[in-house]
Amino acid sequence: MTKIGFLQLNSCSGCMFAVLGSALFPELLKSVDIRLFRLISDVQVDTDLDIAFVEGGVTRDEDAELLRRLWTTGTKIIALGSCAVLGGIMSQSPNMHIDPISKFVDLHLSLPGCPPPRKLLGNLLMSAIDGSEIALPEKNVCGECPFAQDQAFDVEITSLHNIHPPQSCFLREGILCLGPITRAGCEALCINGATPCDGCMGTIDRNLPSTLANFFSLIKVSDAIRKYAALAFRYQKPELKVKQ
Amino acid sequence: MNVYAALAHPLREQILRILDAERLITYNDLMKRLGLKKTGLFNYHLKKLEGFIEKRNGFYQLSAAGANAIRLMTAKEQLMAGESIDLSEADSRGAIFRIGVIVCSCGEEIHQAINVGELMEKVNDLPYVERTMVFQHLCLLENVEKLKAWCDRYFLNNLVIAACSPRLHSQMFTTIRMQLDIPIEFANIREHCAWVHSNKPEQATEKALLLIRASVEMLRHRVSIPKRTLPIRKSVAIIGGGLAGLEAAKVLAQSNYSIILLEKESCLGGVARRWESIYGAIDCGPCMIAEDVSSVMLSGNIRILTNTELSDISGTIGNYEITASQQPRYIDLSKCIMCGSCVDICPESRSDEFEHHITQRKLIHLPCPAAYPNRPVIEQEDIDFCRTCRKCEKACPSKAINLDQEPVIKKFTVGAIILATGAEVCDPKTLPQQGAIQYNPAKDIITSSEFERMLAPDGPTGGKIICPTTGQPAQSIIVLQCQNRTKTCSQYCCNVALKYLENVEKKAPDTSINVLYQISLIPPDRTTFIPEYSHIHFCESVKISHRGHKRLIQTDTNSFPADLIVLNMGMTPGDQQLTLRSMTNFSLDRRGFIDPKSLSSGIWACGSITGPKAYAKLVSDSRDTALEVLLLLGKDSLPAGDMPIQINQEKCGLCNLCVESCPFNALAIIADTLRIDTLKCEGCGACIAICPTGALSSPPIQEEIQAAMVALSMSTTSPRILVFSCDSCGYPAVDNAGIRRLDYDPSAMVIRLPCAGSIDANYVITALNLGFDGVVVVGCHETACRFFDGIKKAQTRIGVLAAFYGDELQKRVRVLNVSAVEGHVFANQVNQFSTELKELIS
Q1: Prediction ipTM score
Q2: Closest Cβ–Cβ partner in A142, A232, A241 for B654
Q3: Chain B residues with beta carbon closer than 8 angstroms to that of A211
Q4: pLDDT-derived band of residue B422, with 50, 70 and 90 as boundaries?
Q5: B539 near B518, Cβ under 8 Å?
Q6: How far apart are CA A166 and CA A147, in angstroms?
Q7: Is B801 on the interface with A (CB under 8 A)?
């Protein structure tokens, strides 16, 4: 049986709870040997794993060492959730620096999302069971959004939040929605829940600051929102490497 | 071409291997190498390899397919030996690059600043450069032949011309491009190098080398777009049989092309059916329609379908497939003899919509007086009753009535489409309410349409001008102008007022008539100027008042008797615009009418669909449109636009960002698919920069820029400055600095882009990551941007990046707005920037 481990680095356990709540978790329990899952078991064996699901980003040297040890011994590393894939919410911290795990190891698979969307997570667990491939959607959230054909790009964006159930595309109501620049896969969960998309699945084609800059050059964004730098670094903080 | 069939014979495999090793070999040499004595066998195998090998000037070489076959063989060998294969190679398209580099020394100009000998040595060492040559004056016409011969001789399939600015001799270079038919890239080593760095020969030479290297790299990443042509069918569909459609049909009918005219109503003529007369023209509306129709019907190549409404458009210019649904008329046009028995026997009546519900008509009826086709019709809403009655069906002597007719779907494929569905006369109930005089026939306040029917001899009043409430002749008439839902000029209503003055004077000389313009209602875009005249008055306000039994209109300066008040209605966009918009792409002008320039190629619009017009304008508009269509149909095919834009529908989330970004309406989402009208695309690149998923991409633009950046990043100057310049104002400004011999820091190297709006924010990040110390974006002044808002987009993007990254980025990126003659601005700014960067990096 495949030996699986669930690791948590700097994380909130949200992805782990998503795994527990997944419809495929019972199947997983039956089909694989879960050797490490600290949330539900006191067993602390983190060696000799075929596959390691890693939640959370890297903030300490010990975490980076653990990852490299697993990787060099042949464990396939799967990055689970936006923190592992992109860096995550801790990117906003002024005190701490957090890295996505891809900075330290090669990834077998990765699934962003905060938490990862239900269906894609199910597919991912399935792939651990039977080795099937998973593919992340390459469209943006507009492709799944109920208000997709109702966009308006000429309304000034003055707000980040929504107060009442949306009648149309958030952009038409002057509320910033990052749906157009965010990877699909969540079936527009937040938008269907009356909240504009905040980009937890990450961008699709280019880094976030560039994609956001391109996006903002087409829509009208109020100065206040434009200067709100935390917006760009909600789930990731790409570094600008400038040769000194 | 089956590669396995080609490789099946060991001799053929050997031929390909020899060609791969030797690159070029003659027939005889190849035969010798194979050890063959007989030409018969050799020729047989050469024939089998057709497509994999090419012969030029007596030499055989591998084609692109042949090179791929070699790769296949190599991969197979590796796999069979148990190795894993890596298919990612430098030129993974399997193309063979034989790049030639021409350096034009421009007489002595280049030599003065650049060591040409040293440059040529280094250029020769560049990978993929096969041969180089120096010309003294490439721009001389005789050198074009020399150049062509040189390229042919050495089988060069790509060319870099390092010379003066490509903008200078654009005609010459176009000739070279057309004659040589191979990809050419230009490196500007004169205006951008020799002329501006003459005091730094070492750096100038290095910069020239880098610019040439960048061009070489761009060619290596160039994807050649196969030239497509669009065949043009020799037919046109005119949608709408009103005056505009008929006028266009008149012109088109004189050609040999076939015409299909679709009319939604059961008779032709549109709005004009109600016009009693048209100002300045002799005929009345119905006569004009009859005149147009007869001259159109004289040519045999037109089909007119009434009761037929457009339901779908698909396809592209030259091959549009239109679908229309034809509602049943229930009367066979060819059998009906217009005896009128059906109308006589019909037991039911309705109010006549054509006569504004003033009179009644039978269920089976003539659509309007002087209708074309002059045959009865039954409306859809009545057919259920008629099918229970059937009296007319039995009464018809020629069995022309068939009450069981069903709607029919019709499909046509045409080369061009003219939309002429017109506009609507404003509904008086939609007029602005405050303080205005309201439409109310019960108070003898009617619209111009109703007044037209009153003037018509075959109208409901028999041509007598009466007050509808009393039926008595009207002693006094007031015409109120500029009656419209929105404050835009409908262009024909002033003429209508003049027409009424003439008409009433003739028909009822004792009736007083006055035309009133209320100044606050006159729209700012009025086109006609009517001077104050004896019966034409301008005033601030109008109000109804009474003197005894007589009604008056009281203005701020005067009062006029007003037995009958006519509201001269303007025109509003028709409802059918919404349905049209679901079939084809267009945008509306600020008045709400279709902007004809925004329509897809091959689709035109004429008549009031693009805005209400006076009659003379409508005729010339329709004729112009017909002539443009004739110009198109006269061609057998059109070259499809060659913009290298790829669309990957799998990645497209239909977010509409690209549609919004295009200044030319070339992108549209139709039936959940993103489509590009290549003939409208002007290649500004705005869409590629904005697409967040990479669904819309242009490898030639994106990969080439990346390749150029990498090549230029090998500069050894300090600082290293990358300049992105737009083609409209930025690049000419840099040229201008060259022409004026203004010295600036050679560390600044230029990449040319169609528009600043195509500068993806990612290019800036990539440039800094590649090691450039600074990035400059040179574009037009905001008000002068050729692609409307390209430079603004670039400025916004850099502003946003600076807001996120802070000082780190802010200090390393500059945006310059220049005009083509502001070379000094460019030179000064570059020098200043260079000084600042030097401090920053020290």
Answers
A1: 0.91
A2: A142
A3: 692, 761-762
A4: very high
A5: yes
A6: 9
A7: yes
Peptide bond into B719 cis (omega under 30): yes
Contacts of B340 (CB under 8 A, 6+ apart): none
CB atoms inside a 10 Å sphere around CB B482: 23
What is the phi/psi pair of residue B424, to 5°? -115, 145
> A11-66: per-residue pLDDT in tens?
999 999 999 999 999 999 999 999 999 999 988 788 889 999 999 999 999 999 99
pLDDT of A244 > 70? The answer is: no
DSSP letter at B710 equals: H
Contact flag B761-A244 (C-beta cutoff 8 Å):
no
Q: Which amino acid is at B573?
A: P
Token pair in block for residue B434 = 């405050």
Stretch B626-638: mean pLDDT, rounded?
94
Q: Which site among B657, B807, B813 would you substitute to test the A interface, given the most A Cβ atoms closer than 10 Å to its Cβ?
A: B657
Beta partners for residue B315, in sequence order: B320
In chain B, the percentage of residues whose pLDDT exceeds 90 is 55
Task: Kindly report the nearest CA distance between residue A167 and chain B, in angstroms.
Answer: 17
Cα–Cα distance between B656 and A151 in angstroms, integer?
8
Q: Does A63 touch chain B (CB under 8 A)?
A: no
Give me the amino acid identity at B546: H
DSSP designation for B223? P
Q: Which amino acid is at B253?
A: A
CA dist., res. A199 & res. A178, Å (int)? 6
pLDDT of residue B88: 46
Q: Tell me which residue in B660, B694, B792 faces A204 most closely, judged by beta carbons.
A: B694
Please name the residue that has the structure tokens 């905001």: B782
- DSSP string covering B12-23: HHHHHHHHHHHS
Q: Residue holding tokens 């669909």?
A: B609
User: With contacts defined as CB-CB under 8 Å, which chain A residues touch B807?
Assistant: none
Which of B778, B731, B766 has its CA nearest to residue B170?
A: B731
Q: Is the dihedral of CA B734, B736, B739, B740 positive or negative?
A: negative
Q: What is the pLDDT of residues B342-401, one digit of tens each?
A: 999 999 999 999 999 889 999 999 998 888 889 999 999 999 999 999 999 999 999 999
- Which residues does A1 contact at the CB level (< 8 Å), separation at least 6? A31, A32, A33
Q: Quickly list H helices, B64-115.
A: 64-80
Kindly state whether A213 is in contact with chain B, defined as any CB-CB distance less than 8 angstroms. Answer: yes
Q: Which residue pairs from B402-407 have beta carbons closer than 8 angstroms and sit at least 24 positions apart in sequence?
A: B402/B330, B402/B331, B402/B332, B403/B330, B403/B378, B405/B328, B405/B329, B405/B330, B406/B328, B407/B325, B407/B326, B407/B327, B407/B328
Interface check B232 vs A, CB under 8 A: no
- Cβ proximity of B699 and B646 under 8 Å: yes
User: Are β-strands B696-697 and B235-239 bridged in parallel, bridged antiparallel, or unpaired?
Assistant: unpaired
Counting runs of H as helices and runs of E as strands, what totals does chain A give?
A: 8, 5
Alpha-carbon torsion (B413, B414, B417, B422), positive or negative = negative
B478 and B514 Cβ atoms separated by less than 8 Å: yes
- Backbone Cα Rg of chain B: 37
Q: The tokens of B66 are what? A: 């042949």
Selecting from B693, B762, B800 the residue whose C-beta is nearest the C-beta of A138 gives: B693
B249 and B236 Cβ atoms separated by less than 8 Å: no
Location of structure tokens 């499809």: B640
The structure's pTM equals 0.73
**pLDDT number for residue A218:** 92
> Are the C-beta atoms of B652 and B638 separated by less than 8 Å?
no
Query: d(Cα B192, Cα B204) in Å, to the nearest integer?
Result: 10
Instruction: Please report the DSSP string for B247-260 in residue order.
Output: HHHHHHTTSSSEEE
Q: Residue A143: list chain B partners with CB under 8 A.
A: 652-655
Amino acid of residue A78: I
- The number of C-alpha atoms within 13 Å of B571 and in the hemisphere containing its C-beta is 24
Chain B within 8 Å of A156 (Cβ-Cβ)? no
